[in-house]
Write a structure and sequence with these properties.
single chain; 406 residues; alpha/beta; Rossmann fold; GMP Synthetase, Chain A, domain 3; 3-stranded antiparallel beta sheet; 15 strands; 32% helix
Length: 406
């Protein structure tokens, strides 16, 4: 789904301006999400942007912002702490509620994950919470400043280097993180929980994921990130988290139109308007949900394939399936079949092989690519059977569409 990213700002809990980005689909969003970045990171870290884009791609607009004193937000980092992060998250939710819609999904990376767990009870509209490499105890981050702890205790503050950048840490920060215990909050969450964590995370150990998961009540899920690092610096790892998170979140942000369409019986499809605009439709086929729309050029949002796109997809998939069944039955070494199709309206007089000679007719151009150690005879046989695909035969036969009394 096409998306756009907007720069926005809002007032944090203490009146300072916080910089944010809102990643949203071109169509009216199905729901809103709120993303909290990792400790000393920013809204623009690759993992944050990739995950927000994945959510927007499935229709969930996502606000990611810089905590006070970080990135492009106002304030001094030295004056912040875990409590102020929670307050900023609640302020961000208030902003979404006032300007757009309250967030239904909360996502937090590293200490941001602990922050969304702590803030979740203050955001009643949130239905689902996801953490990525989050510590079970905010005090876990104290090890990052362990070498300077003596100076902080003695002088009240010290400059420390975290991830190659200098930050001033005050004693109140350490006192604040040590005063937060999340286990009771997680146990009373009453929201769906998804915990992402890499077993080899060298920054926040996997035991933290175990503690969060054990404290939580169902529904809860855990996804192992295998060899990913703490910051999800590899594109493939961030993309994986984004894809899984988007699929999981869909369960908790279904639109009214999707709820209105019950699962259909075999051989039946149901379609209803989403009322997001003039064209978008929600389609139910069995337990599957699809979308249809029109491109922006004709007034749609391009949030799904057009009806003719779906027709081409039906013909192409049926053609490929038919060739596969034939190849397997005849022991033909077909590795892969690819079908590309294009639809257009042409003048009947331009079609020499057509019976109709007036007006316009529908023309579907089909290109079939066959891979494998195939003989000329194999290829000819597969191309012949392609024309016997059931959808192909339906398009060439007389079809009656009748209105049934339901």
């Amino acid at each position: 789904m096409p998306i756009r990213t907007e720069r926005v700002d809002f007032k944090g809990a203490h009146g300072l301006t916080l910089a944010a980005r809102l990643d949203r689909p071109l169509a009216p969003p199905r729901a809103y999400a709120l993303f909290a970045h990792c400790f000393t990171c920013s809204k623009d870290i690759f993992a944050a942007s990739r995950i927000a884009q994945a959510l927007a791609d499935c229709g969930i607009a996502t606000l990611r912002f810089d905590f006070t004193g970080l990135g492009h937000s106002e304030g001094e980092f030295a004056n912040t702490n875990f409590s102020s992060n929670i307050e900023d998250l609640v302020a961000a939710a208030d902003f979404l509620r006032a300007e757009y819609d309250a967030p239904k999904v909360l996502v937090g990376h590293s200490l941001g994950g602990a922050a969304v767990l702590a803030a979740a009870p203050q955001i009643p509209e949130a239905q689902a919470v996801a953490t990525i490499g989050a510590p079970a105890d905010p005090g876990h981050v104290a090890h990052l400043v362990a070498d300077a702890r003596g100076e902080i205790e003695a002088k009240g503050e010290a400059e420390v280097t975290i991830a190659g950048r200098a930050f001033r840490i005050q004693k109140q920060f350490l006192e604040d993180i040590e005063g937060h215990q999340l286990s009771e909050t997680v146990a009373a969450l009453k929201k769906a929980l998804l915990v992402f964590h890499a077993p080899r995370d060298q920054t926040v150990g996997i035991e933290n994921a175990g503690a969060i998961f054990a404290a939580a009540k169902h529904p809860k899920s855990f996804v192992s990130l295998d060899t990913a690092d703490h910051l999800l610096s590899k594109r493939a790892d961030a993309a994986y988290v984004g894809a899984v998170l988007a699929a999981w979140a869909e369960r908790y942000v279904e639109t009214a139109a999707a709820h209105a369409l019950a699962d259909t019986s075999d051989g039946e499809a149901a379609v209803a308007e989403t009322r997001e605009g003039r064209f978008p439709q929600i389609i139910a086929v069995g337990s599957h949900r699809l979308r249809a729309d029109e491109p922006e050029s004709v007034g749609g949002f391009d949030s799904g394939p057009t009806p003719y796109d779906l027709l081409l997809a039906a013909l192409g998939s049926c053609t490929s399936m038919t060739m596969r069944l034939y190849a397997d039955r005849k022991k033909i070494p077909l590795d892969r079949a690819t079908v590309r199709l294009r639809h257009e309206k042409i003048h009947a007089e331009d079609c020499a092989e057509c019976e109709t000679k007036e007006g316009k007719i529908d023309r579907i151009e089909r290109q079939i690519t066959l891979e494998g150690d195939l003989t000329d005879e194999n290829r000819a046989a597969l191309l012949r059977i392609a024309d016997r695909c059931p959808v192909h035969r339906t398009l060439h036969s007389e079809v009656k569409i009748v209105d049934a009394d339901l």
